[in-house]
């Protein structure tokens, strides 16, 4: 589900659980130009007209403009901090990865099979944490790749000389992630093979393209799976939610001598990294 609740920076280990309902409202206000300070309400009929006018303005914008507005909001909110992350999130249109619902609201959305595409602020947070390990030519692994959105971003960042691998254990989700990417700006990378998706148990990683400069895990593990640590390159970084009910987004750095350093970035709420049967049983 990736219902992330916080976006603290890696250097700040303080836990913040912000109310997830507050974000969409602030987001809508920033998009629709709603007043930040309340003014006296207009009469009901006029009120409905204003609302329709603002909504019409918003919904008739072309899709990519609305995606850009989402990234603009994430910049104001502090989740997008660099041009590099803004650029990739503007290039990969979130609407192509959200099968139903409102793609440009800062909230997770269902993608079927008890899975969700993560909230945009969580995508931004993970991209910011990993950006130095997503340079052109580098190798990236996205575990629990779901909609394929982040894998596509990784592929754009590492480019055709690099490798971006998405692994996911539900075959139907993998099939739709491939369709999503085929309609996106990352399609040429899928065709040339520098971006690929595979049906497999993410807890085992994907040794074929290891070692990885960057590993992202999109579902919460009770503890960091050893195969993922083994497949991380010295100097590489993994971002992984760890825990069951209470989860921390951990930033795991493998030092050049092979030792491991771990920092807690934020308290989060993700679906579990689990077996296929356990995931499909959960309501
Ligand atoms: N980053 C993705 C997150 C999808 S939700 C996105 O934003 O679209 C997490 C995904 O992890 C789900 O699609 C779920 O099916 C997958 N998952 C859970 N356990 C897994 C496992 N053991 N192996 C592979 N994928 C797993």
UniProtKB/TrEMBL annotation:
Classification via CDD domains: AdoMet_MTases (cd02440)
Q: Which GO terms describe its biological process?
A: methylation; protein repair
Q: Which UniProt keywords apply?
A: Methyltransferase, S-adenosyl-L-methionine, Transferase
Q: Which reaction does it catalyse?
A: [protein]-L-isoaspartate + S-adenosyl-L-methionine = [protein]-L-isoaspartate alpha-methyl ester + S-adenosyl-L-homocysteine
**What family is it from?**
Belongs to the methyltransferase superfamily. L-isoaspartyl/D-aspartyl protein methyltransferase family.
* Coiled coil regions in record: none
| Gene3D superfamilies reported for this sequence | Vaccinia Virus protein VP39
Any one cellular component term from GO for this entry?
cytoplasm
Give any GO molecular function from the UniProt entry: protein-L-isoaspartate (D-aspartate) O-methyltransferase activity
Protein name as it appears in the record:
protein-L-isoaspartate(D-aspartate) O-methyltransferase
Query: What InterPro entries would the database entry show?
Result: PCMT (IPR000682), SAM-dependent_MTases_sf (IPR029063)
> Which EC number(s) are documented for this chain?
2.1.1.77
């Amino acid at each position: 589900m990736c219902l992330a609740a916080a976006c603290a920076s890696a250097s700040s280990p303080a836990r913040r659980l912000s109310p997830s309902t507050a974000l969409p409202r602030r987001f809508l206000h920033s998009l629709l130009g709603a007043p930040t300070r309340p003014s006296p309400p207009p009469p009901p009929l006029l009120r409905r007209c204003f609302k329709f006018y603002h909504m019409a303005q918003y919904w008739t914008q072309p899709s990519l403009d609305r995606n850009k507005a989402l990234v603009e909001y994430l910049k104001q909110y502090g989740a997008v901090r660099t041009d590099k992350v803004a650029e990739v999130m503007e290039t990969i249109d979130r609407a192509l990865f959200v099968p139903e619902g409102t793609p440009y609201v800062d909230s997770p959305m269902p993608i079927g099979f008890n899975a969700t595409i993560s909230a945009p602020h969580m995508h931004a947070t993970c991209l910011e944490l990993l950006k130095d390990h997503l340079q052109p030519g580098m190798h990236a692994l996205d575990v629990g790749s779901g909609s394929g959105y982040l894998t596509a971003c990784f592929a754009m960042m590492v480019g055709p000389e690099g490798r971006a691998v998405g692994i996911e254990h539900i075959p139907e989700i993998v099939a739709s992630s491939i369709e999503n990417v085929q309609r996106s700006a990352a399609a040429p990378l899928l065709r040339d093979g520098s971006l690929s998706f595979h049906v497999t148990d993410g807890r085992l990683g994907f040794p074929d393209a290891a070692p990885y400069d960057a590993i992202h895990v999109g579902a919460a593990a009770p503890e960091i799976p050893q195969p993922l640590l083994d497949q991380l390159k010295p100097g590489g970084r993994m971002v992984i939610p760890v825990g069951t009910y209470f989860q921390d987004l951990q930033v795991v750095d493998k030092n050049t001598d092979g030792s491991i350093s771990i920092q807690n970035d934020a308290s989060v709420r993700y679906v579990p990294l689990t077996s296929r049967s356990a995931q499909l049983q959960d309501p």
